[in-house]
């Protein structure tokens, strides 16, 4: 097998050691007493269990914390934002609304608004906040698309929320129309609703009925005066998926008109999911949250 002189025993031993070392799997333990971690969560809302998890930042904490909300139905979950914000010292809690992606119950928009408040309450209770290293006085919401609506509704309906960020957020009841009935969007929302098998008990017809019946209740513009000077950032993609003239600009104007308003608006020219601008989206989110929402 080998030509020339026989291999020396020490060389053979070292070669065997190196071979075994690089061939065996290496299992390493996180460094420190309070390492970054992921914790699976089960949160009950109105008698139904919702699945979720928390990205915990390294360090003893307590940490400022983001509630990250997915859209309709939630194919884009923005978990790169969660990882990036955790690396910047923020905890991030993510969950699936009732009736979505395996969470129990039936999906509805009104139910999703309720679920956000349930999770906020869960996050800020002393026992859970301590276990998850959450600072209950520094909780903010970030949401995308329908989750953008939920992020703004979430802060308007809860005076304990510090800040909110909406990524190309819909206003489910814009001008009393209801987004499913919006004539200017390029999406046939009724037909699209029939394809969403990951939303339990849902259909395009239900989406039309709910947003038509509760359009005035959903309308964020009508609720804007509840903001009470808390910081909000609206990031628009400027597409026909969520037409800014109906959904985003009127909301910005309404929030801007409130007393002591702190409302920022930015357009990122990209698709609805900001597919080519993820670094910019994360950077804008981090700058806003770190400046306005940690004190």
Explain what this protein looks like in three dimensions.
The chain has 295 residues and is of the alpha/beta class. It has helices spanning 9-23, 79-87, 109-124, 126-131, 146-156, 189-194, 204-213, 215-218, 244-247, 249-256, 278-292, and strands at 37-45, 48-56, 63-69, 91-95, 134-144, 163-167, 232-236, 263-267. Strand 5, helix 5 (146-156) and strand 6 form a beta-alpha-beta unit. Helix 2 crosses helix 11 (278-292) and helix 3 packs across helix 5. The protein has an eight-stranded mixed β-sheet with strand order 1-2-4-3-5-6-7-8, sandwiched between helices. The protein is built from eleven helices and eight strands. The longest helix has 16 residues, at 109-124. The protein has one domain (36-292): 3-Layer(aba) Sandwich (Rossmann fold), CATH 3.40.50.
CATH fold-type name:
Rossmann fold
Low-confidence stretches: 1-5, 16-28
Helix content: 25-40%
CATH C-level label = Alpha Beta
Number of helices: 11
Give the end-to-end Cα distance, rounded to a whole number of Å: 70 Å
Which second-level CATH architecture applies? 3-Layer(aba) Sandwich
**CATH homologous superfamily?**
Alpha/Beta hydrolase fold, catalytic domain
Order of strands across the widest beta sheet?
1-2-4-3-5-6-7-8
How many strands, which pairing sense, and closed or not: the largest β-sheet? 8 strands, mixed
Descriptive terms for the model:
alpha/beta, Rossmann fold, 35% helix, 11 helices, 295 residues, eight-stranded mixed sheet
How would the blueprint of this fold be written?
Elements lengths: L8 H15 L13 E9 L2 E9 L6 E7 L9 H9 L3 E5 L13 H16 L1 H6 L2 E11 L1 H11 L6 E5 L21 H6 L9 H10 L1 H4 L13 E5 L7 H4 L1 H8 L6 E5 L10 H15 L3
Parallel strand pairs: 3-4, 3-5, 5-6, 6-7, 7-8
Antiparallel strand pairs: 1-2, 2-4
Helix pairs in contact: 2-11, 3-5
């Amino acid at each position: 097998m080998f030509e020339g002189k026989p291999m020396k025993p020490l060389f053979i031993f070292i070669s065997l050691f190196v071979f075994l070392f690089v061939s065996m799997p290496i299992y390493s333990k996180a460094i420190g007493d309070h390492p970054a971690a992921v914790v699976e969560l089960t949160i009950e809302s109105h008698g139904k269990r919702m699945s979720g998890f928390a990205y915990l930042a390294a360090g003893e904490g307590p940490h400022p914390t983001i509630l990250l909300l997915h859209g309709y139905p939630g194919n884009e979950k923005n978990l790169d934002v969660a990882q990036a914000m955790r690396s910047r010292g923020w905890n991030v809690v993510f969950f699936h609304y009732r009736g979505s992606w395996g969470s129990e119950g039936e999906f509805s928009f009104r139910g999703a608004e309720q679920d956000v408040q349930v999770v906020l309450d869960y996050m800020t209770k002393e026992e859970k906040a301590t276990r998850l290293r959450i600072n209950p006085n520094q909780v903010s919401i970030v949401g995308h698309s329908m989750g953008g609506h939920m992020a703004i509704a979430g802060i308007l309906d809860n005076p304990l929320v510090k800040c909110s960020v909406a990524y190309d957020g819909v206003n489910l009841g814009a001008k009393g129309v209801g987004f499913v009935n919006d004539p200017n969007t390029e999406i046939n929302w009724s037909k699209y609703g029939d394809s969403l098998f990951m939303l339990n008990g849902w259909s395009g017809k239900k989406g039309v009925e709910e947003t038509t019946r509760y359009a005035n209740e959903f309308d964020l513009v009508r609720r804007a005066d509840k903001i009470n000077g808390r910081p909000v950032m609206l990031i628009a993609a400027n597409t026909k998926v969520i037409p800014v003239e109906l959904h985003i600009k009127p909301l910005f104007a309404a929030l801007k008109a409130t007393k002591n308003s702190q409302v920022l608006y930015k357009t990122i020219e990209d698709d609805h999911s900001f597919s080519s601008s993820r670094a910019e989206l994360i950077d804008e989110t981090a700058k806003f949250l770190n400046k306005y929402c940690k004190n």
